[in-house]
Structure formats: C-alpha cells, structure tokens
# Entry
Amino acid sequence: MIVISGSESFIGKELRTQLDGLGKEWIGIDPSASSDKRSLKGDICDPSVFSLIPKGAEAVVHLAAISRDKDCAADLVNAFSINVSGTINLIQAAKRQGVKQFIFASSEWVYGEVANNEVQCEDTVIDISMLKSEYAITKLVGEQMLRLACSDGALSGTVLRFGIVYGPRPSNWSAVESLFFSSRDKAIIEVGAADTARRFIHVSDICSGILASLGVPKYEIFNLSGDILVTLRDVVKEGAKIFGTTPQLIEKNSGAVSIRNPDNSKIKLRLGWKQGLNLRAGLETLNTHITAA
# Structure
C-alpha cells in the first residue's frame, strides 16, 4: 500500500494514475479529497493523521506542501506550519504505523544560488545560512528532519530533489507551459535572457522516478531532473514548430543568463530510472490536454 499526501495535487494525480496502471494499491490524504475509499480528507498538520495510514504500509510519498516561493514568502507562518511542522507530524505518524519507507518531495532550490558553470550533485555541501528562498529553507529542514527520524533504522527515508516540473495543468504554470502557449498566442514574446536554462522534467517522469525509488533502504538523496539543460529559447522554438507559428523572441536582458544544473546520474545508475519524455514529446502532451487560460 502506497500512501500519498497531497494526492489531489498536479503530481499526486499523475502518481495515482501510474500506480493504477501498475495495479498497486494506494490511498491519498488531502484536505480537498472526496473522502471515498481511496481519497481521504485529511490534514498533515493534524496529530490524528496517523489514523489514515494503514499499519505496515509500503511507503508514504509526501507531496503535500506550499510549493511556490512567493506563496511561502507571503505567509511564512503557514508555510513553515505545513512544510516543516506538517512534514514532522507525517514522519512521526509513519513511524507510529510501522511504515517501511518515507519518500520526501524536496527541490533543486535547496542548492541555493549557484554559478552558471556549476553542476549540483547530491553530495554538494549546502550552507543553509546562504539560502535566500523561504521555500528552499523549509525543504532543507524537512530533509534533515527525515534524516534524523531514520537514524534508528526503523524507517527508510528517500529524498527526491525535484527539478522544475511541467506538464498538462490548467494553472500554476512553470516557464515551460507559459512560453509554450505564448508561442501559439503571441507575435512577440519577451524573456529576460533567452539562454537561461534548466533541466526541466515532465510530471510523468517525476512520478516514474518516485516509483523507481520505492524500496530504497536507509536514508538517501537523489536529484530527479531532466537529462539535459533546456533554454527558454528552446521552449519557444519547439512550441513554434508544433503550432506552426513564427513568434519574435525579444530579450530584455541578454546578459542575465541563469543556469541551474542538478545532475541526475545517481538516480539513473542506482535505480535504473530513465527520462521518458524529451522536450518535444513533453510539449506535445500540453498541446493535447490543455486549453490555455
């Protein structure tokens, strides 16, 4: 049995679909759940949340979070209540119920400010005093609390540091969805620096990475990101090809290039995970499933 916190989220829904495809049992915990047999209405900050977790469950996949930096900054008390206290409460609930593994959705943002020529690896030493993102701080604290909880050997902990996720969703778009639909709808597209790049990763590959991490023993950290750096220019170019448009790309500050490069070699070598969708294939899923707002 797999328990999913944040089961009504963008990633949670895709994970449920993939688990169904594998015939694996799951239950979801989410404040907006329908409270049917598998989707349970629950709050990770509530001490009674343990009662929603089956004893001896295979894993808790912890996705529930305030996940946008601007939302964390706007309400720090709520962000730390959910992302830190809620995570601690859920870890304790998992241990109380004898859950075998706790999989924690972290973020590449825990690496903080990085130089464009740097590669971020799981053994990179992170100085929390240098982090400028409230969201990143909550995630790094969550990682460390899980590490401590696993120190007695009763629980295995797996941290997945997600890259920038995109996919078919109606709101909360990343730069990928926004630029893709701009390439359809706008004659002129403005960006800061077109060569800004990230290892963008499709939601389906995020969830296949979560599934690949099931059964990892002890406490371990993995970057879960795309295979290559993709620039903002690449996204617009591929979008224009798909839609048959010719938007003009204008840079407001071509010198302000920002590159983040979290290496995914470890999860590929250790767990056999492979990226399933390249940029073109990933963008095609947006065109198929989303009507732009």
Q: What stands out?
A: The CA atoms of residues 115 and 259 lie 7 Å apart. The domain at 2-163+201-225+262-275 is CATH 3.40.50.720 (Rossmann fold). The first strand starts at residue 2 and ends at 5.
